[in-house]
Amino acid sequence: MLTQEENELICRVGPGTPMGNMFREYWLPALLTEELPNPDSDPVRVLMLGEQLIAFRDTNGKVGLLQNNCPHRGASLFFGRNEESGLRCVYHGWKFDTAGNCIDMPNEPAESDFKQKVKATAYPTQERGGIIWAYLGPRKTPPPLPDLEGNMLPGAQAWAYQQNANWFQILEGHIDTAHVSFLHYGGIQPEDVPQGSFSEYQLRQRHAHFEVIDTEGGASYAARRPAHDGTVYWRVAQWIFPSFSMAPPGVLGLGKRNACEVPLDDHHTITYQMSVSRGRPGGNGPNATFNPIQMQPRTTDWYGRWRPIVQPDNDFLIDRSVQRANSGPSGFTGISGIAMQDAAVTSSMGPIYDRSKERLGTSDAMIIRVRRRIIAAIQAHMRYGTPPPGVDMPEAYRVRSGGVLLPEGSDWVEATRELRQAFVEHANLDPALNGPL
Ligand code: FES
Ligand SMILES: [Fe+2]
Questions:
Q1: pTM, full prediction
Q2: Helical H runs in 76-210?
Q3: Ligand nearest to the CA of 249
Q4: Within 10 Å of residue 362's Cβ, how many Cβ atoms?
Q5: What is the pLDDT of residue 276?
Q6: Which ligand is nearest to the CA of 93?
Q7: How many whole angstroms separate alpha carbon 390 and alpha carbon 202?
Q8: How far is the CA of 289 from the centre of ligand 2 (A)?
Q9: DSSP string, 236-266
Q10: pLDDT at 116
Q11: Which pLDDT does position 290 carry in this prediction?
Q12: Residue 57: enclosing H or E segment and its boundaries?
């Protein structure tokens, strides 16, 4: 549990808040490349860390991320004309480039030098692997982008979805492997999956013994379950500052997926998924299939991007007859799709749950560790300006998650050191080991 003060400290991310300030030290996904498909395409409203911004791609293909309100008298630049390497406010014609410089001020006399004195807040952007990254922080020269293989390897792709909950509530779901045997697979029996696969071990003993370690950029945890013939099944997962995670389905050494929670504001979050094999968020086993989230039609509203059709207001389209039958991957919940099962429980807590009311058990060890690490980093950043972990260490993001079989009595930390390293190929590993889940 957390005190209400600690809870507020982690959850509030607007400008000037301690966690908001810490978040701003990092590069974060702001949009998918496909949201600004070509030069001079339509400007997009982007809400991020409680700030209203307008994204546009200029004539040369460069992406700008400007404050919403025009520096002149505040008209929204959303209505701007995206033309000839700049976004022109339609109220009096001031025009801004991607760096926020005012490059034309046609309502002032030609001899006026006022336009040299005007600058719009503009945040640096970079594009990589289908994601437009933004840096909302204080440094003149931003730090490097994190080394995320799901965003860097050839064929890297990304997808996104929005949820009605605080960023940390969603992250906690992504670093909680204990729920998987229930929420997602409660309707599947061990006999339903290939014998000798990780899926079988996970279903045969739904509880697990958890161990957590600190890593350079965050924390890693492993869930231990008995396997066969003196071996143990370890399910290893990663969290990296501030909101990057790697889900554990699949075989350790093969997984190349990363996720990142980006707060729109305190109550809305977009999760960005990055993968070299788009279409396999549920594992890298041979039967893993892409389960795209069906999206509502996009709107230009601040909350109009990447909204799934299933939502709190339609009870995530729960089907009670499916739930009653309790069979198959939707059986436990009656809700279809892993990401939407997660979304249902996460948003059902309310946008920011009061964590002083929780009762945490041994399977919550990772959540407890991550909270402690974040609170310590916020306090050091707030009091002494200490750069938080990972900001200047892109290599700290070179990690992997997944399952592994180890001999009884092995030290998983030592035994998996190389398998937990990203950008290493392991041709001898068989993805079929995982099974279908
Ligand atoms: S408000 Fe934008 S140019 Fe006047
Ligand atoms: Fe989940």
A1: 0.95
A2: 114-117, 149-152, 167-174, 198-204
A3: 2
A4: 11
A5: 83
A6: 1
A7: 32
A8: 16
A9: EEEEETTTEEE---SBTTT--EEEEEEEEET
A10: 95
A11: 42
A12: strand 51-57
Rg of the chain over Cα atoms, rounded to whole angstroms, equals 23
Contacts of 47 (CB under 8 A, 6+ apart): 53, 264, 265, 268, 302, 303
The 10 Å CB-count burial string (b at 16+, else e) for 168-204 is bbbbbbbbbbbbbbebbbbbbeeebbbeebbbbbbbb
Ligand 1 pocket test, candidate residues 81, 94, 95, 119, most atoms within 8 A of CB = 94
Give the ligand with the smallest distance to the CA of 120.
1
Atom of ligand 1 nearest to the CA of 73: 1
Ligand 1 atom at shortest distance from the alpha carbon of 92: 3
**Which tokens sit at 309?**
């059709």
- Ligand 1 centre distance from Cα of residue 107 (Å): 9
- The residue to mutate among 66, 72, 81, 115, having the most atoms of ligand 1 within 8 angstroms of its beta carbon, is 72
CA 56 to chain centre: 22
> Tokens at residue 346, please?
């996460």
Q: What is the DSSP letter of 28?
A: E
Residue 82, token pair as written in the block = 């995206």
Tokens representing 20? 């908001």
Residue 74 alpha carbon to ligand 1 centre in Å? 6
Reported as a single tens digit per residue, the pLDDT across 84-117 is 999 999 999 999 999 999 999 999 998 999 999 9
Site to substitute for ligand 1 among 68, 69, 70, 87, most atoms within 8 A of C-beta = 70
Ligand of minimum distance to the alpha carbon of 183: 2
Residues of the chain with pLDDT under 50: 278-291
Distance 393 CA to ligand 1 centre (A): 41
Backbone angles phi, psi at 128, to 5 degrees: -160, 135
Q: Which protein residues are within 6 Å of ligand 1, measured from CB?
A: 70, 72-75, 89, 91-94
Average pLDDT of the chain is: 94
CATH number of 27-135: 2.102.10.10
For atom 3 of ligand 1, the residue with the nearest CA is: 92
Q: Spell out the domain ranges in the chain.
A: 27-135, 149-434
User: Which atom of ligand 1 is the closest one to the Cα of 94?
Assistant: 3
Ligand 2 centre and the CA of 426: distance in Å?
A: 27
Which spans in 185-333 are helix H? 198-204, 320-325
